[in-house]
Every structure is written in C-alpha cells, then in structure tokens.
Amino acid sequence: xxxxxxxxxxxxxxxxxxxxxxxxxxxxxxxxxxxxxxxxxxxxxxxxxxxxxxxxxxxxxxxxxxxxxxxxxxxxxxxxxxxxxxxxxxxxxxxxxxxxxxxxxxxxxxxxxxxxxxxxxxxxxxxxxxxxxxxxxxxxxxxxxxxxxxxxxxxxxxxxx
Length: 161
Fold this sequence. Notes:
With 161 residues, the protein is mostly beta strands. It has one domain (2-160): Jelly Rolls, CATH 2.60.120.10. It has helices at residues 2-12, 18-21, 35-43; strands spanning 15-17, 28-30, 51-60, 68-77, 89-104, 107-113, 116-122, 125-130, 134-137, 143-160. A hairpin with a 2-residue loop joins strand 6 (107-113) and strand 7.
C-alpha cells in the first residue's frame, strides 16, 4: 500500500503534452500509472533479458543534450547487471517488487572475464532495497544492481539535461 500511495502521488505530479498521448497540440494533463498498470507492463517484459524495460511516457525537449525532458519506464532487473553512469541524466528508482542491493558511488572498473568485458563498481556504497523504497541517483554517479531476490521491478524516472 505504501508503494502504491507514494508512487501514485509522485506520478500525479508528472504532466505530459496531450500531443504525446492524443495528438491534441498544446494541451497538458497528468498521468496516473496505477499499480495495475505497472503489473501489466511488467507482465509484458521479456523474462530472458537481464535488463528488460518498457517506456511508459517520454517528453521531448529540444533544449536538452538528449532531446528528452523526462522519461518514465518500468524495468525488471535480473543478474547479471553492468555498472553504469550517465553524464547528462539523473534517475529516481522506485522499487515496486522484489528485494536486493544497489551499489552506488565508488568508481567503475572494467575487467575481462571469459573473453567478455565486465563493468563493476569498486569502493561503492551498498543500499539494501525492497518494495516501497526510492533511490535517487544524480548525474555521474556510478550505479549497479548487485543483488536480487529473485529480481527487482523498478519504476524509473529519468531526468536528462
């Protein structure tokens, strides 16, 4: 209930152009992403992919380096995961289902394992997370899902610059 209430309140604050939803230019309206909507989107994700996601909404902004004002997505994370850091994007992760650990901060190191490049975080902070938790990841901060039980379902808010 905590997750649904908090997530619903946050999502009501996100408005998108109706043009992106209905083709009516210049009109805006709020978007509610209900718990049922999240579950339906999650059911469509490919379970054989370690990082599966689907965009719920995306607002364009030609004044940003990425061309996007913000993006809202439903993500399912399972092992293995690579460390990442985004120069022009902050993220807010809302954990909807599952539990695990997300490592942030530190530095990303690359190693070769079985002929493949592996990216992981060295010297980071481990955050134990479960449904109802939120994690804010500023630009340039390394982050990686490092533990899963059995997976993490996340609603991700991306704020490019």
